[in-house]
Amino acid sequence: MTSLLAAQTNAGHGASSPARVLRCRNCGAEYPLIAVHACAECFGPLEVGYDADALAAVTRAQIESGPNNIWRYAPLLPVGQNPDDRVSLNPGLTPLVRADRLAEAIGLNAPLWVKDDSANPTHSFKDRVVSLALTAAKGLGYNSVACASTGNLANSVAAHAARVGWQATVFIPSDLEPSKILASAVYNPRLVAVDGSYDDVNRLTSELQEDDAFESTAFVNQNVRPYYAEGSKTLGYEVAEQLGWRLPAQVVVPIASGSLLTKVDKAFGELVKAGIVDERAYRVFGAQSLGCSPVYTAFAEGQDVVRPVKPTGIAKSLNIGNPADGPYVLDAVRRTGGAIAAVDDDEIRAGIRLLAETTGIFGETAGGVTIAVLKKLVAEGAIDRDAETVVFNTGEGLKTADAVESQVGPTHRIEPSLRSAREAGLLG
Amino acid sequence: MTSLLAAQTNAGHGASSPARVLRCRNCGAEYPLIAVHACAECFGPLEVGYDADALAAVTRAQIESGPNNIWRYAPLLPVGQNPDDRVSLNPGLTPLVRADRLAEAIGLNAPLWVKDDSANPTHSFKDRVVSLALTAAKGLGYNSVACASTGNLANSVAAHAARVGWQATVFIPSDLEPSKILASAVYNPRLVAVDGSYDDVNRLTSELQEDDAFESTAFVNQNVRPYYAEGSKTLGYEVAEQLGWRLPAQVVVPIASGSLLTKVDKAFGELVKAGIVDERAYRVFGAQSLGCSPVYTAFAEGQDVVRPVKPTGIAKSLNIGNPADGPYVLDAVRRTGGAIAAVDDDEIRAGIRLLAETTGIFGETAGGVTIAVLKKLVAEGAIDRDAETVVFNTGEGLKTADAVESQVGPTHRIEPSLRSAREAGLLG
C-alpha cells in the first residue's frame, strides 16, 4: 500500500456521508473507503456500501431543497455533501422530454419520455460520474486525474480538470471520432492517443496506475471507480423525481461497460427502500450495437458469462468488448423481466434521425442505438406498447457528426433571388 | 393586410400577458399585437410595449415559483403565460459559472462569471428567442415557420419545429460551418442553402414572406421579430437572479444584429423598475469580430450611423454586415459608459482556447470573440479590473470545430504498452 493509500485509510469522509465501506460484489469482503476497486480476495469489483438507516432517512423535501443539479442527491451519494468539497461542473437535472411524436412513430400507446443527457456541460452523462470521481479523488488526497475513454469520458475529465486547474492525462483509442478528440484537446490535457481498442487502452491504464509516476493521480474509472460509478445513480433518481416521484414501467438503457444500466436499477431500488417512491414492478431493457454486443449475445443465449469480443461499428462510445458490469446487467434485466437487443449501423443512423425528427433532440450514436433498440423491442412485443417508457439519450449528436453527415444536408440550393426560389419550387 | 393578419387583430393575447402594443422605436407609432415588425409610418423597427403597472407588479417570489427555464419569467414576456400555449424546447437557466482561473489569466481582480448558453437544448442562446417566436406564432394562427440564419438560429428553428411537427423552412448562407448545416439538416426541415451572405439571405426572406406561398408561415426574425427579440431579455433576468437578485457592474456581450445586447440592457432596466433588483450603475460592453465590425467602427469613430460592411472571418454567427439594432447598441453602450472592441481571427481562436483551458467551457467562435474582447478591454483599461464582470458565451464549440481543430490534438501517440508509454515520457 502506498503512502497515499495509507493516509486515505485514516482520512474518513464527512459525518454526513451515508457511505460506510467498499464491498466486493462477488464475495462480500469489505474495505475502507479508499482508492481501490478490486477485491484483494477474489478480484471482484468493489461497490460503495451505505448505512441503510442513513439512506432510509432521506426525504423528498430534503432533495427538493437542494441545488438544480446532481448534488441535490448528495444524501444518497458517497461524497460531495459539503459544497466546498465538490470538484464538479455541476451536471444533472437534464430534461425529461415527453416524446409523443416518437411514441406515435414506433407504435407506443402510453407516455414515452426521453431523458436527454446531451444537456450536461460536456454533453454526455459522463459529467455525472466524473463529478463523483473527482470529488472523491480530492477527498482522498489526489491532485491530478487520468482516464481511459471512448471519448465522452475524456471530454468530461479534461473539462473538469481545466475548471479546477488539475493536470489531466487522458488515454483514448487513436481512431476516435474527430469531434470527440477535439472536445478533449481544446482543454489542453495530456491527450494520449493509443493505437489499439478501448480494451487495450484500459489494460494499459490499469498497469500505469501502479507506476510511481502516477502515484498522486486518480484514474476515474479504475482506482476511484467505486465512487465514479455511483454518479450514474443520479440518472435514475432524476427520472423518478421528474415523473413526480414515481418509477416508470419500462426503461431502455444503452450498455457499454454496463455500469449505467445497473446503477439506474440500483437507484430505483434505493428510492423504494427510502420510501421516496412507491414500490412497483418495472422492467429494465438494454441496448447494444451489433458491432459490439457481448451482453446481448449472452442474454440471447441464456448464458451467465459474457464472452469478450473485438468491437467494430459506428457506436464507438459503446465499443467496450469486455464490459466490466456485463454479468450484473444480465442479473438486472432478467430479474426485472426485461430484455436486451442489438442493432446494426444502418439502424443506428436511422435511430439518430428518428429521434431528431420527432423530438428535436440530436443524439450521438449511442442514442441512435437506444432509440433503434426501443423501436425493435416494441415491434417484437418485448416492450409493452401500453406501459409508460423512459429511454436514455446519453450523448450529443455533434460529437458523432460523421455518422449521419453523408445522409442529410440542404434540400435546396438557390441564388439569393425570388426567381431562383421560384425555380426551386419554394413558392408552390 | 392578409386575412390571417386581420384575424390576428381580434385574437388578442391572454389576460395575463403584460404586452399591450407594438411600438415603433423610431417614431413611437403604435400597432396591435399582430405579426408586423416595421412601422408603416417610418419603416422603423417595432418593439413590444408593456403595461407598466403589470411589469411593476412582478415579484421575485412569483418568478422563483416558476419552472427552471425561461418561462419562469413569463410575467415579463409578451407570450407564453399559459404553459399549454408554449411552443418551446424549454431553454434557459443555463449555468452562470464563476471563472476565477480566467479572471486571473487576464488580470481581473473582481469576480468574473461566464453565462454559458451552450447549455441550451440546441446549444446556443437562439433557443430563447425561437421559443418566444414560435409561441407568438401559434397564438397568431401560424402553423409553419421559417428563418434566415447564420446557423444557430437555423438549428433551433429546425429542432423546435421537429418537436411539435411543424414544417420549417430554413434559409442559410451556403458557406456555413459543416456542423451547423448538419445540426439543422438532421431535423429534416426544408433546408435552403443560398449562395450569398447572411444579409443576402435576409433580404430574400423579407421578400418571400410577402408571397402567398408563405402566408401561414411565421418568419421568426422578421414578421414575428418583436416577440422573438424579447426572448433575449431572459439572459439578463437570469444573470440578475443567479447573482442573488442584483446587477453586475460590467457585462460583455457579442454583437451580431445587436438585439441581444440591447435586450440584456432592457432586462436590467425592467428589473430595476419592478423593484426586483436595486438600481445601480452598470456598463455594457460590446464584442465584434474585425471581419465584421460595423458597430465597433461607428463607436470608434463617434458616429451615430452604422455603415453596412461585407463580412469576412471565422466568427460566422456574428457575420451580419447590416445589423438591425446597431444604432440601439451604440445608445446602450454610450449611455452606460461602456465600450466596443473588435478582435481578429487569431485572437478569436486564442479566446476559444483560453476559455476552454480555464473554465472547462468549449465556446463557439462568437464565444472566442467575446473572451478575446474582454481580455483586450481589460488590458486597455476600459474594463475596470476591480469590478464584477459577466461575459456571455452564446454558443457551442462543437459547432465551429473547424476554427480550432488545426491548433489542438493529441499530445502523445503510443502503442498500448508500458514500454511505449515510457518512451513517450509519460512515466517521468
Automatic annotation (TrEMBL), chains A, B:
It comes from the Bacteria. Transmembrane segments: none annotated. Residues 88-395 form the Tryptophan synthase beta chain-like PALP domain. The modification N6-(pyridoxal phosphate)lysine is found at residue 126. One of its GO terms (biological process) is isoleucine biosynthetic process. Keywords: Lyase, Pyridoxal phosphate. The keyword Amino-acid biosynthesis does not apply. GO terms for molecular function: L-serine ammonia-lyase activity; threonine deaminase activity; threonine synthase activity. It holds the Pfam family PALP. Its EC number is 4.2.3.1. Its cofactor is pyridoxal 5'-phosphate. SUPFAM superfamilies: Tryptophan synthase beta subunit-like PLP-dependent enzymes. NCBIfam families: thrC. Belongs to the threonine synthase family. This is Threonine synthase. It comes from Cryptosporangium phraense.
